[in-house]
Amino acid sequence: MTQIIPCGNEEVDRAIGGGVPFPCLMILEGGHGTGKSAMTAQFMKGILDAKKNVLCITENTVKEYIENMKSITFNFSNAFLQNRLTILPLHMYGVKWTKEQSAFLLPVIGKYIGNSFKETNCVVIDSLTLLTVFADASQILDFFTQCKYLVANGMSVIITTHPDDIPADIAQRVKGSVDCYLQLGSTNVAGKDVKTLKVIKLIGSKDASESGFAFEVDMTFGIKIVPISMANA
Question: Which of 3, 43, 103, 225 is the most exposed place for a label (fewest CB within 10 A)?
Fold first, then answer.
């Protein structure tokens, strides 16, 4: 049964229909600098506040990830020290991946996630880029099939992607299979730079969600939704 978990930001919760559906398979897609990691951290905060255990797979080191998130108001230190948040860095100091080794990253991570099922309620992958750069279409489809199986058994999977991470010939199949698909971007409105989030697909939300909104990532207040009137000011 799907439950709704507030993300801890009332403005964002209102915009996405009350909170984050749980469990769900979610993709946040956008280019560099569009706020994918910040929005994902907001969702992680809500899930951790709901006493769920989270596995975060990131391109940063553990220290970098915690410090980067803390700089935009998301302090995950306590959850990390309490073993409710596990951080798995994909980059390791002194290790250079060959093309052949990199091709096995996605299947290996998929197996690791599957083996973590009993201890983990939610898996966050930020981002998919490094895992798919040398993966073929069948490996990517197999990975998302596995994610769907995990979600069907009660685990949430949240993945950030860049527009080219998934080959065009299978992109529609992958995006069509997810429960939540959020598209992030950036724009300039009347001289003001803002980030944008467009709700393409959101299955399981409590209330009707907005089609999209503009927001900023503030070093003091975290994610702030920008009213259109303010963006136009």
Answer: 3
